[in-house]
Every structure is written in C-alpha cells, then in structure tokens.
Amino acid sequence: VSRVIPVETFDLVIFGGTGDLARRKILPGLFRRFLAGQMPESSRIIGAARSELDADGYRKMIADAVAEFGGEESSNTKALQTFLERLDYVAIDAKGDGGWADLAKLVRPDVIQAFYFSVAPSLFGDLAERLHTNGIATEHSRIVVEKPFGRDLASAHALNATLAEHFDEKQIYRIDHYLGKETVQNLMAIRFGNVLFEPLWNNHYVDHIQITVSETVGVTGRGAYYDRSGAMRDMVQNHLMQLLCLIAMEPPGEFEADAVRDEKLKVIRALQPIDNHHIVRGQYDAGPDSQSYREDVENPRSFTESFIAMRCHIANWRWAGVPFYLRTGKKMKARSSEIAVVFKDLGHTIFEGDEARHRNILSIRLQPNEGIDLQVTIKEPGPGGMRLIDVPLDMTFADALGDDAEEVPDAYERLIMDVIRGNQTLFMRGDEVEAAWRWTDPLIEGWEARNDVPKLYEPGSAGPEDAMMLLHRDGRKWRDIK
Ligand code: BG6
C-alpha cells in the first residue's frame, strides 16, 4: 500500500532550470517523486533560463543530470522517458520581454502553479513583476525562493519588500533545506508526540545542548560566493538557527504553519547577544594533499571563516542558564550532523564505588545514519557486581523502517511537494529570516570592523583548538565527530 500523499495537478516553472541546483537536486528529486507516483499525469515541469534550448534539448540535459545525480533510480529508463515527456522549456529574459509570451501560453491558469526562483536574488524582483505584467501569476500561485535570503538585515528586508509588492506572504515559500530533512521533522515528533521528553526539556534537567554540522567538503568551485559569506552567513544564520529553534521552541498550539513559525520566531528574538569571547572562527589550512581555504577561494588575504563555534543563551524561563553550543565547518574530519541534548548529572549516587559521571544524552543524528539514540545507564551484565555502564538505546531509522527506508524522500523532494500541497510549515517566514539577521548582523559587523583573523585548523580535524577551549572553560566537552 502506498503511503504517498497524492497531490493535485500542477505546473512547476523552474527559473534557473539549467542551473546547478536544478540539475543536481530539483529535477532528480522530482523524478523520484514521479516514480513514487506523486506526480499526476497532466502535471508539467517547465524549465526557464537564458540558454537558447528547445524542449528536446532540455529533456536531454535533464536526462544527463538524472543519470549523473539521480542514484539508482536513474537506471529505470522507461520511467525516465515518461517523466521527460512532462518537461518543457522556455528561453527567457528575466530583465526583458523575451520568452514571457511563450511562458504565458504554457502555464495553465486552472491548475496549481508554482514558480521556483532558482536564480540570483537580484532577479527576484524582475521575475515577480513580469509574472504579473504578463498575466501569468494568479493569487493562487506560489513562489519558491532559495537561500541566501539576503546577506544582512537590510538586504533581507529589501528582498521581502520586493516580493511583497507582488505576492502575499501565504504565497512565498523560503526554502531552508535543513527543514526538509527527515530527522529534523522527527525532532518535533519526538518532543511533542511523547510523554517522556517534554517534562525534562528545560533548565531543571538539561545541562546543555550541542548542535554540530560538520562537513568534509571544502569550498572549491564556489569560492566567489563563499568568501563573501563565510560559515556564519552560509550555515548559522539559516540551518543551525532553524535547528536551534526546533529544539528550543515552546509547543505550538497546533501543528500548523503559522503556529509553528510564531514559536520559532520567539526563540530567535530571545537569543541573547554574544560577546566575542564565546565565538571561535576558524579557517582550514593546507593539508598534505589539499589546498588551504585561501588557495581554494583564490584570495590570499581572506579573513572569512570556514568554521565557527559559539555559545548562545536563550533568555526565557525554560532555558535560562542552559548553554547552546553550535559549531559548523568545512574540511572537517567527518560528514556528521548531530543535535545532542545532554541532561544533568544525578545529584547523588547510591552505588558504591561508582565515581563515573553518568549522564543521559539524547542524540539526534541528522546525517549520515539518520536516527536517534538515548544514552542510558545500566548495570554491566555479568557477575562483576553492581557496576554501571552507559549504553545507547539506538533507533537508526534505516533499521526501524526496513525496506521502506528507501522511500524516505530527500529534503528537496519533500519541500517541493509541500509547496504543491500549499503547506508552509517547513518554510521560513519573512519575519523569521529578518530576526535571524538582526541577531547575526552585529556579530559579523564586529569582526569585519576589526579585521578579526580566523584561527587556522588542520583539514580533517575537529576545528581549531580554541573551539575545544570554548567548552573546556565551562567544564564540558564536545561530542566526538564520527
Ligand atoms: C548549503 C550551504 O545551504 O548547505 C553549503 O550553502 C553546505 O555550504 C550545504 O555545504 C550543506 O547541506 P547538506 O544537506 O549537505 O548538509
């Protein structure tokens, strides 16, 4: 029995349809949804970009992209053929008139329309305007916009204002693909679907929380973008902040887009300013067989960070006094993302000779090996007397789901289907994005003004030594990255 939720017929226009994201993620993802039976027969995907291609040329491009990035499914050539028949293409000029009349002919007014702006943010305004002046968009259309959503509060505010001239907030889907990850959604299920955790989810029982997003890739190939952003703008302002919100927010009154987003916004607003003492910026050095960050971005004097670790506090009743330690970096020792809720020590032990500190730790693994484990203390089995050890109660999703694990859609697939369904729960609202910038802006401005030099770290490590110290000073330690 298929558990796939059916969607209504749609026309999805992808501006930037020949670009990297479209070829790597969007189209291969849509093909997987097609295979899962989630694309009604008369639905269409229309690529729109500058290149002078015809529909067949585009189909060929996407067939190659699916072969390259689509995984195992791409060997299903018969299905791929049928999928490709649903594709169309329009050569379009975002800043001129070219192509708009053709697009208007293709997009049907009586089905769900979604316009994916997979282009530079400087074109958002042009696209939004032309969709209206050419009579293509209706009040039911949806637009999808990618990050980066601005590079500071002022630019994000300006972007929001531009979009608001043409579309209502209910029509705007700002993607943060971390919200589409299976475990991230599970975070809400765990917190609000169990009686066990919520009573402990506060400063009486939680010692601290760690959020780690560690990557092994460097920034080769996207140096021009990355060097102007750095880890704070590229990862913390959006992905890590969203994770922080879901961990820390109050239970929403219902599982509905604005109810959830209202609670997330409150968390961001309650974040205290951080002083520099509690931030460590790093930049990867050259390794035995790899280039340094500065070589990768071709900027020998770059002060941009490829790693950041920080200690944050949320000023509210639930979290007063509980540090949230965040870290993320490129060229680290493993690709591993995890949220760990470290509970407090037992105040007193009744077990003689048990000096070890036993702690319950709930670890939520985003990738790889998505799953959750809870470290609990038990008696060491066997005749050794009452000796205590810590063991994980492990729920790796792949084990729990068996064959069904393959059906778990990737973040982009899930989010695109949510757009078609009209469900904004996993998308950022305009005020959320602005609040996040409002918090990060002074930090970034501070180090830009003083030309703060990031600490070098070895590629393949856990980041600079100072990041270890950040927790050491508090008598704590980071979890291993593995
Ligand atoms: C993107 C960042 O948003 O997320 C990249 O721009 C980063 O720098 C990527 O590599 C990480 O995503 P994922 O899904 O691979 O963890």
Q: What report would you give on this structure?
A:
This is Glucose-6-phosphate 1-dehydrogenase. It comes from Yoonia litorea. Residues 13-186 form the Glucose-6-phosphate dehydrogenase NAD-binding domain. Keywords: Carbohydrate metabolism, Glucose metabolism, NADP, Oxidoreductase. The chain has 482 residues and is of the alpha/beta class. It is built from 14 helices and 15 strands. It has helices at 20-35, 55-69, 77-85, 100-106, 124-133, 153-166, 182-193, 223-248, 257-270, 293-296, 397-401, 411-421, 430-449, 465-472; strands at 10-15, 44-49, 87-91, 112-117, 142-145, 172-174, 206-214, 279-284, 307-312, 324-329, 336-343, 361-367, 371-379, 388-396, 455-457. Bound molecules: 6-O-phosphono-beta-D-glucopyranose. 6-O-phosphono-beta-D-glucopyranose binds at residues 147, 215, 234.
